[in-house]
Each structure stands twice: as C-alpha cells, then as structure tokens.
Amino acid sequence: MVASTKGLIRENELGQFKKRKFKNAMLMAASILATTIGLFFLVWILFTLLERGLGSMSMDLVTKMTPPPGSDGGLLNAIVGSLLMIGVSTLIAAPVGVIAGIYLAEYGKKSKLANTIRFINDILLSAPSIVVGLFIYTVIVATFQQFSAWAGSLALAIIAMPIIVRTTENMLLLVPTEMREAAYGMGASQRKTVFTVSLVAARNGILTGILLAIARISGETAPLLFTALNNQFWNLNMSQPMANLPVVIFQYAMSPYENWQGIAWAGAVLITLAVLTLNIATRIIFRQSKG
C-alpha cells in the first residue's frame, strides 16, 4: 500500500516536472522568436539607413550650409543648431532633474509631496513629445509671436528632465544605507552626507541618466517643429528660429529634390551614430559604476 502511494507521488512529480519543462521550452522559444523579430527589423532599418546615407556622406556635410534645391551643400548650420539647443536644454534639465531626484530619494521618500512629484514625473516620462511641443508653442511661441531656439531648448529640457529625475532617484536608492549610517555616526549632517557620500557613490549612475536623456532628445523632431522651427541660414541667436538636424531631415526627406533627400539620409546616419556613441558611453560608465 505504502509502495503504491510512493509510486503515485513519483508519477505525479514526474508529470509536473514534464509540464514545467514543456512550459520552459515554450517560453524560451517565444523569447528567441521575439528577439529574432526585433533584431531583424533593427538590422533592416540600419541596413537601409547605411545603404542610402553613406553615399551622401562627405566633408561637405559638416563644412557647408544647408543648400537650396539642386545645389551642393551640407548640414553645418543644422548640426551647430542641434548641438546648441541640446546643450542649453541639458544645462536646464540636468540641475533641476538631479535636485529633484535627490529630494525624492534622500528627503521626501514616502511623503505625500514626494509621491505627487513621482506621479507627475511618470506622466511627463510617458507624455508624447508632440504634446510637449504644443504646450511650449502655446505658452511661449504664441505669446511672443516668435519661433526661437530658446523655446526649442525648453521643450527638449521638459522631455529630458523626467529621465534624469527617475535615474537620479534610482541610483541614490542603490547606495547602501550603511554608508549613510556610517557618515551620521561620524557626526556628519544630512546635507553633508548627501553631497559627500550618496552623490559621490551614485555619480556614475546619475551621469548615465543624463547621457540617456541627451540620447533621447537628440532625435526629437515633433517638439522642434512647433518651437525652433528651422532656418536656412547660419544663426547663433537663440531668440530666432534655428536650423536643427531632426527638422531639416524631416523637411528634406519629404521634398521632391534628390539632393535634399540624399542629405536627409546622411543626416539620419549622423544622428544614429551620435545616439549609438552615447549609448555605448553610457554602458561603459554604468559598467564601471557597478564594478
């Protein structure tokens, strides 16, 4: 009787093991299939981009201005405009985002105000960029009756800020509590502990978040269409419309002129290489922070 019961238990365990093994194999197959589909489209996009863009890559691309239809030219003014607006938006978003992240992780924690800030930050994080562009258009462009690089930079800063806030908070939360307690035990104040212990330990992770935010806003087109617009000429005046890579690529790709389309593809390659470089740098820095 006992031997029969043990046999039934073993058969039942063997059956459950086979079911788990079958489910594991199915999930593994589904994961491999999903990864293959994702990689297939990624390789297809990169191949198309390089096939059409590399032919138009030349020194003219980074030394000449955006040309009229049918003429030779490059993207110099658009590249400089993009770098200028990304730089200004980073200068706006990084301090605000880091300070907000410090408050959430070190001071606010589970308070009502901190939870409200997290809720608003999550909404901003998932908000479509075109909505941000329309908001800045209504508040700034329509008010001053002027498209400007300042408006474009502010729109990009609003998109970058929630990424920096989230990353800063998460990186600070990863700092072991024992390190803070050791600082308190030596008589350090909370402010000194935050700035000399927590921030120092989390600096690489915070820098990673800033780089990820820069990579995110580098290719944004929709908010710039409503704010900075475009400029055919060389312009460093932030109060005027300014050329930028995403809008130039959009307008040139939609045009019927073959030389403009070639420049648009080359510009897309430039942005892709810039974002790829930023992502590689981010991974290297993050790996160093984990080590």
Automatic annotation (TrEMBL):
Instruction: Give the UniProt subcellular location, in the record's own words.
Output: Cell inner membrane; Cell membrane
Q: Where are the transmembrane segments?
A: 25-47, 75-103, 123-144, 150-173, 194-215, 263-286
Q: Which controlled-vocabulary keywords does the entry list?
A: Cell membrane, Membrane, Phosphate transport, Transmembrane, Transmembrane helix, Transport
Which CDD domains does the entry mention?
Answer: TM_PBP2
> How does this chain sit within the bilayer?
Multi-pass membrane protein
Q: Which InterPro entries match?
A: MetI-like (IPR000515), MetI-like_sf (IPR035906), Phosphate_PstA (IPR005672), Phosphate_transprt_permease (IPR051408)
Q: Which Gene3D superfamilies match?
A: MetI-like (1.10.3720.10)
The record places domain ABC transmembrane type-1 at: 79-282
| Cross-referenced Pfam families | BPD_transp_1
Q: Which family does it belong to?
A: Belongs to the binding-protein-dependent transport system permease family. CysTW subfamily.
According to UniProt, the name of this protein is Phosphate transport system permease protein PstA
Provide the species name.
Answer: Leeia speluncae
Q: Which gene encodes it?
A: pstA
